[in-house]
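Ticket 4471: requesting a sanity check on a complex prediction with manganese (III) ion. Repro inputs:
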Amino acid sequence: MFEQIKLAYGFDALEPFIDTLTMETHYGKHHALYTKNLNAALENLHGFREKSIEEILGQLEQIPDEYRIAVRNNGGGYYNHNLYFAQLTPNAGGMPKGDLLTNINDTFGSFDAFKSQLSAAAAGQFGSGWAWLVQKNGNLYITTSANQDNPLMTNEGNILLALDVWEHAYYLKYKNMRADYIKAFLQVVDWDVVGNRLA
Ligand code: MN3
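Returned C-alpha cells:
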C-alpha cells in the first residue's frame, strides 16, 4: 500500500503564495485520489505490489495492457505529488546552496537564468502537466511532461524539482494567471530538499 507523504506544514502555511483551499483540495482530494486509485490498480498486479514506485514507473511496459494506463496516470500522480509537496516550505531560504547552486550556475549561468528558463517551460506546457528540473548522468536540464507523466517513465533521469501546472494547483487563487502561480511557487521551494535529491 502506497501512502501520501505527510505534510511537514499546515494547509495554511504557504499563504499567501499558495492558498489554504488549494492546498486542502490538492493534497486532500487530488493526491489522495491518485493514491487510492494506484493502490486499487496494484491489487490486481501481484508482481508489482512489492516494488518501489520508482521501479514501477520505470517498467510501465511490463504492466498488462488493461492496467497500464491506470498505473501510469495514478502512479505518476501519486509520485509526482509526493515530490511536489515535500519540496515546499513556509520557511523557504530563497536560494539553493552548495552542490545544487554550483550545478545550476554551471548549467544555466545563474540562479536567475535557471528560474527564467524553468518559468518559461512551465508557462509553455500546453494544458495539464509538469515542468521538471532533472539530473541525468550528472547533468541538469529542464523538461516538461503532459498529464501525470514524468521523466522516470522515459528513463530521462531523476527528478530534482517538480512544478505542477495543472489548473487544480493554482486556479482557485490565480485563475488563468499561470505565470503568477509559477512566481509564487518559487517563493516556497525548500532548496535544501531539492539539493538532497542530487545523485
Ligand atoms: Mn496536482
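Notes from triage: The helical segments are 20-42, 53-58, 65-86, 98-108, 111-124, 171-174, 178-185, 191-196. Leaving this open until the requester confirms.
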